[in-house]
Amino acid sequence: MAPVVLNKKRGKNWQKPPLEKKQRKNDPFVEKRSKTEEISDDSDSDIENEEVKDPQEFEDEGEESGSDTGSELPSDGDDPLADDFLRGSDDEEKGPDSDAGSDSDSDSDSDVSDIEKKSRAIDEERAREKEEALEEMQLNIREESDEFRLPTKEEIEEEKQQPPDLPNLQRRIKEIVRVLSNFKDLSQKGTSRKEYVQQLKLDLGSYYGYNEFLIGALVEMFPPVELMELIESFEKPRPICLRTNTLKTRRRDLADVLINRGVNLDPLSKWSKVGLVVYDSQVPIGATPEYMAGFYMLQSASSFLPVMALAPQEKERVIDMAAAPGGKTTYIAALMKNTGLIYANEMKASRLKSLTANLHRMGVTNTIVCNYDGNELPKVLGLNTVDRVLLDAPCSGTGVISKDESVKTSKSLEDIQKCSYLQKQLILAAIDMVDANSKSGGYIVYSTCSIMVTENEAVIDHALKKRDVKLVPCGLDFGRQGFVRFREHRFHPSLEKTRRFYPHVHNMDGFFVAKLKKMSNSKKTSAGPQPSETVEQQTPESNVSNGDKKTEENSEQVLMKKATTKAKDLKKKTSGLAENGNVESPSNEKRRKKRKFPSREEISKVREEKRKTLREKVSSKKAGSKDIGNEK
Amino acid sequence: MRPLDEAETTAVFEKLFKFTGNNLKNIVENPSHEGPDPNPGRYCFRLHKNRVYYVSESLVKRATNIARPKLVSLGTCIGKFTHGGKFHLTIQALSLVAANARHKVWIKPTSEMSFLYGNHVLKGGLGRITDSIAPGDGVVVYSMSDVPLGFGVAAKSMQDCRKLDPNGIVVLHQSDIGEYLRMEDEL
């Protein structure tokens, strides 16, 4: 009875500390403790029965000698547990036990209480361990609590030593994105947004395998949540698409034939009448007899877009400046129904074979294939000669990372800038080849498979400044508008007519399309205030300055040229401004808005002057001859 | 790029005649809608780097300002001259030839793939065949769904074909559309 009571008292004491901490943690512990209580009760009761007999034998000796002789006692082969209990209880808890009861009672009590003491000691130890475990858990919970904390420098150093811990990185990325999306509430005091972003960049770079430049560029363009979506979508491939060749078949018939062969496909989208998307296929989709007969072309969905924007008409002249492997060229030919003329140009000789093979396979007959650098094309094909130009410019390929993972690590700022420079040159060459006065055309479509602003909006802006072109709607309304301003850049407001496509929004490769219309065949220069020249001499320069010798040269223009070479020299001395080698005066800038050729009064004035000079010449000759005649 | 001279023209027309017979004049006189001119012009043959091209005249005119080493292809290539001076028709001529073919053969779906790998057409794979085929005639091979697959030379006459066992060769393979995948570089 007594030991049971004591145990219960201890039990109460033990229960108090865990109650202070989390309530829900108590239940298992309380359960455990109650179990241990039961066990200890049982054991005590068992031991009690046994021990009542034994200690009475040893009592006389044991109590006198105490713990010293006690060690000899157990060698007699009695229950070893009992001896341990006895020893332990003798050492530790004599006080309360000795108080309770008479000698005989105290002896039995002390024996029993020794056992109790032992059991209490074990219980206490268990309790201590549990407390420590609780505390540890508290610590861990505190670390992972709502307050997300950026890793300190020491932790970063540690991480660098070890191989990257992917789950940890992923967790941290998610946390930082969460914090950034609600920065006011969730951020740690004292850490700026920049530090979070910096850590995010590092983590994304090491988790997904991007180099520093590229991840920095992406972070600048997108908010954190969208950035995650974009990066995730770059990890997965886009669905395979094919385009029916309308020169040879119709989409419905082709779909039927392919389904019979075991291809699982669907129409692409409502914006395309010729596209099909392939989910899976029992036969290799690039090697069916229909493919070989030229009924369809394997092409990504984003490659349909620039040709749809270009919208070539029948009997037009079209140039495709970067044609290989020929997907877009064959689409253009199909839209033109094999009428008109296409110049398909490709700079790299190794890609020409596939271009010609595709053209022949798809049954295209109105194409001339040539192998020039895009910048040389205007000299070969002539300025202001064609109706439409498609420039699918060579780019860094940041929109097609899902096809080519090496882009993640291989692109740097210099690469992007080189591409940008090349693209700017090519787009000016493309604009120069188009005839602004063409009856049905006068359009240039510029497209890239990149999402970088330097390669897209900046190039178009450059073209708008350098040539007399303007942006028109592409006809692709389901894309996102291009940037009108981006960080420190400010572009022309009409750039909102360009279109951007993203993998995470449209399920296509990253793409950019812009459609320009050429307003006139002149090349304008950027703003340069030189008000020193006279009006008549400068105004016809707009006709002359396009540098095209094939345009008709009227006699007045010849005169103008001669007159204006002097002006040009003067100008070159005064300014230092010579953009294309063609210099225009500020008065032309005033007239730029009207975009007129020299007005009739000026032309008539010039003609008058010319006639005057001729008359003077003639009269002087006549006078001279008369004199001679008279003399004779 | 230059027009074909006499010998070359005869070689080309001979080869074409095997397949088309009297329809050859269709090939030559076909009105062409290519080119930006409003009136349809005519087609002509041009030789460039040992390859013969069948092009519309308006295209030819506009291709003259492209330098010889830089010009790659015009219109449709129909064949090439070998080192020995012989003319072979290539697969790119298929659309032209098939439109004007006189002798046709349809093969069963089971032997389609075999032909597309470059094998000859066996009697067992034969579906339909046009009449009056003499040995040595050019024959265009179609699939049962009327898709032209290639062309070849008839090995035996019609009557002999009937007597053949199923493994006998009916049409000797010359060219097939599988070459677009197998031999893209050699086209």
UniProtKB/TrEMBL annotation, chain B:
Function: Required for proper 27S pre-rRNA processing and 60S ribosome subunit assembly.
GO biological process, one term: ribosome assembly
Record bears the keyword Cell inner membrane: no
UniProt GO MF annotations: RNA binding
Subunit structure comment from the entry: Interacts with pre-ribosome complex.
Native source species: Citrus sinensis (Sweet orange)
Lineage start: Eukaryota, Viridiplantae, Streptophyta, Embryophyta, Tracheophyta
Chief subcellular location: nucleus
Places the protein is found: Nucleus, Nucleolus
PANTHER family the UniProt entry points to: CYCLIN-DEPENDENT KINASES REGULATORY SUBUNIT/60S RIBOSOME SUBUNIT BIOGENESIS PROTEIN NIP7
One Gene Ontology CC term in the entry: nucleolus
Coiled-coil region: none
Pfam families: pre-PUA_NIP7, UPF0113
Protein name per UniProt: 60S ribosome subunit biogenesis protein NIP7 homolog
Family stated for the protein in its record: Belongs to the NIP7 family.
InterPro entries assigned: NIP7_N (IPR040598), Nip7_N_euk (IPR055359), PUA (IPR002478), PUA-like_sf (IPR015947), PUA_sf (IPR036974), Ribosomal_synth_fac_NIP7 (IPR016686), UPF0113_PUA (IPR005155)
Alphabetical keyword list: Nucleus, Ribosome biogenesis, RNA-binding
UniProt key word Nucleus: yes
Boundaries of every PUA domain copy: 103-178
